[in-house]
Design brief:
single chain, alpha+beta, 46% helix
Length: 177
């Protein structure tokens, strides 16, 4: 009589083992999806940093006059502070203002990030142009890592853990014009 229920018991054990395996695969797929999204955000941050670095290099007069030294979160959701399109007659200051605005808009549209630019290495005198810019791009990831290794805490713009930022991830790079 024991032989009649043994096949049913084997089938139930196989069903449990297969169910556990499928749940493991589902968990693996979920982790893979989150990591893919986080990797995409990091790639977009790198592209965004390259974008403003190229804009700074394309406007050496504006960089020399210090117009790129304090870009702080230039995104404007209402679009009320859209700089005028001056075409080929832009002054270096107007071009820097337009660059900051376009950069802030593109960061927000790409992945709801905000960007900051500060002078990392000032010139030897106050009249000298900035020699290196720190570019910080901050955004929220779905699952933040336990420790944010990108934050060094030496300057308020370099610290992604600032309460007013409300971002859990950042990308920081230093570029020379």
């Amino acid at each position: 009589m024991l032989e009649h229920g043994f096949t049913l018991l084997e089938a139930l054990v196989a069903l449990v083992v297969i169910s556990i395996g499928l749940l493991g695969l589902l968990g693996l797929q979920t982790v893979s999806l989150v990591n893919t999204q986080n990797s995409e955000a990091r790639s977009l941050a790198s592209i965004g940093a390259d974008d403003i670095a190229d804009r700074i290099r394309a406007n050496p007069a504006g960089a020399g006059d210090g117009h790129y030294e304090d870009i702080v979160s230039p995104y404007d959701p209402e679009g009320s502070s859209v700089p005028g399109d001056c075409g080929s007659g832009c002054s270096p200051e107007d071009m820097a203002e337009r660059d900051a605005w376009e950069w802030g808009q593109s960061l927000h549209q790409m992945f709801r990030a905000q960007g900051y630019v500060a002078c990392e290495t000032p010139g030897e005198t106050s009249a000298d142009p900035c020699r290196a810019y720190a570019i910080t791009i901050a955004w929220n990831e779905r699952e933040a890592p336990a420790a944010n290794g990108a934050s060094n805490g030496t300057d308020s713009l370099h610290n992604c853990d600032r309460e007013e930022l409300e971002f859990n991830q950042c990308f920081i790079t230093v570029v020379r014009p």
